[in-house]
Amino acid sequence: MIFVDENDYEKIDQSDELSLQNILKAVEKEDTIIVKNLSKAISFTVKLNLSKREREILLAGGLLNFIGNKSPE
Question: Rounded to whole angstroms, what are the CA distances from 73 to 61, 62, 70?
Answer without folding.
Answer: 22, 21, 9
